[in-house]
Fold this sequence. Notes:
Layout: H1 3-19, E1 26-38, E2 41-56, E3 59-72, E4 75-89, E5 94-105, E6 109-122, E7 125-136, E8 139-152, E9 155-164, E10 167-177, E11 181-190, E12 195-205, E13 210-221, E14 224-238, E15 241-252, E16 255-270, H2 275-287
Antiparallel strand pairs: 1-2, 1-16, 2-3, 3-4, 4-5, 5-6, 6-7, 7-8, 8-9, 9-10, 10-11, 11-12, 12-13, 13-14, 14-15, 15-16
Amino acid sequence: xxxxxxLTVTTALALTAGVAQAEANYQTVYGIAGTYSIENVDIDMxxxxxxxxxxxxxxxxxxxxxxxxxxxxxxxxxxxxVGVTFGxxxxxxxxxxxxxxxxxxxxxxxxxxxLLGVEYKFADYTLGLAGAQNxxxxxxxxxxxxxxxxxxxxxxxxxxxxxDDDGKELALVASHENDRYEADVGFGYSNDYDYxxxxxxxxxxxxxxxxxxxxxLIGQFENTDVVELGIGGGYKLAENVWADIGYSQIRVEGDxxxxxxxxxxxFETGDRKLKTRTVMEDAYTAISxxxxxxx
Length: 295
């Protein structure tokens, strides 16, 4: 892993944490440096990204940028993403949401995800309907989505349904957090992609400035058993700024498939007003083996 790149990430995160004064709904900047072994092939990775969401009257705008460089023996590759989200409050309860994520992948080429939907909020609940379209190499695939999200004090839960003609996908995520710990429980099922998976992510906060992270995922993908285990610890560098180090391992049919170590630096504050992206990201994290540090 290139030390210069890692120092650049560290400096960028520190500067962002120090100067981020805008009244945004949500802000995050992150950097991940990792070294992994995938079936005895060594891979190094550097991932840098950030996101901001801010509201102006009835309008809400979000911008996300993410870049990853991967080194394998004898070569390297880059993946980048720019995502924009727009929201307009038709009423105090009803919002229209549009999003576009554009990916550039060295080798396979570019692809994009588009989304158009509505959110309806009442009391502690948000209901959403959307159409998502994946485009790659001239091929478009449209998927209808529906979700429900609730937040009550320290508790939150989301249910996401994908109603594709070829099959259905379901993801359920429930969370609880307080000053001492955070816990997320996830469940996913698809008859189209043939998987059933359950996961638990947990963080325990010791006396400042330390925390411990853990992840367990158990699933079956196309009749193949997959287990992921991740453990790690973090140190609070400044308000809303954490440095976490961790080890993760993915086993397929009982045999080790991926394992490795990673270092993550994160600045994060606030919460998204528009819940569509939050629900989709939480569902993906809960049901997907990552092989990366989680926190």
